Amino acid sequence: MTESDDAIKTLGLSPPLHAYLVEHGTPPDEILQGLIAKTREKLGGLSLMQIAPEQGAFMTFLARLIGAKRAIEVGTFTGYSALCIARGLDKGGRLICCDVSTEYTDIGKPFWEEAGVSEMIDLRLAPALETLAALPPDKSFDFAFVDAVKSEYQDYLELLCGLVRSGGLILIDNVLWSGNVIDENADDENTLAIRAFNDRLAVDERFDRVMLAVSDGLTLLRVR
After folding, report:
1. Average pLDDT in the 78-94 region?
2. Model confidence band, residue 59 (pLDDT cutoffs 50, 70, 90)
3. Whole-structure pTM value
4. Is the dihedral of CA 29, 33, 36, 39 positive or negative?
5. For residues 143-155, b (16+ Cβ closer than 10 Å) or e, as one string?
6. Which are the contacts of 100, defined by CB distance < 8 A and separation ≥ 6?
7. Residue ranges per domain, the chain?
8. Which of these CATH numbers, 3.20.20.30, 3.40.50.150, 1.20.1050.90, 3.30.70.100, describes 13-223?
């Protein structure tokens, strides 16, 4: 399916328009701003791996909207997304975070503590596929977020299908991959993996789905 230019409603975001969007939604508070600054200070250009502030606010909103109490995150980086998810969970909620880097996750821990969510976060430092496979497939999770090894996206999803309840949400990040998914000349491993994943997901009847132009592309899946 194609669209004529005059049918496309989604705006491109200039820096000033993006700032306006963040300011008029739920802008990051001092704790989140501190984590953004610390990530930039410690990691420089790698800080671009951190999710956008409007995406974090959206994830908090979604977790609250569905009354999520149990959540799982695949790929934590420096902990911004984890903090946002944890803030959206119901009282007594629990978030399992899957990552392999002590260096990166240690940056986020003081901010989790400052925000009062550290006791809600169970950080498991191991390959995510191992962590997911070790969890009982009892469909007891309400919410999941995937932002890790792109070539493993389909494997994560298959395991999450046994973990997330009917009516629960699974969010997949980076599904537009800077627009490379439609660039015929882009044939690197990550682009090929995301493109193939998107194509499979588009015909997967296990989910209600929507792909949104939030940050680098975000697919929302509601488990049927």
Report:
1. 98
2. very high
3. 0.95
4. negative
5. bbbbbbbbebbee
6. 125, 126, 127, 128
7. 13-223
8. 3.40.50.150
At a CB cut-off of 8 Å and minimum separation 6, what does 162 contact? 137, 138, 139
Taking the CB of residue 1, how many other CB atoms lie within 10 A of it? 2
Q: How are beta strands 164-173 and 121-125 bridged, if at all?
A: unpaired
What's residue 11's pLDDT? 83
Report H helices in the chain. 15-23, 30-43, 53-65, 80-88, 102-115, 128-134, 153-160, 189-201
**Structure token digits, residue 7:** 């049918």
Rounded CA separation 76/100 (Å): 9
Q: Distance between CA atoms of 177 and 108, rounded to whole angstroms?
A: 25
Tokens 């704790």 — which residue?
31
Q: What is the largest CA-CA distance in the chain?
A: 50
For the beta sheet containing 218-223, the strands, ordered from the edge strand earlier in sequence to the opposite edge, are 121-125, 94-99, 70-74, 141-146, 164-173, 218-223, 207-212
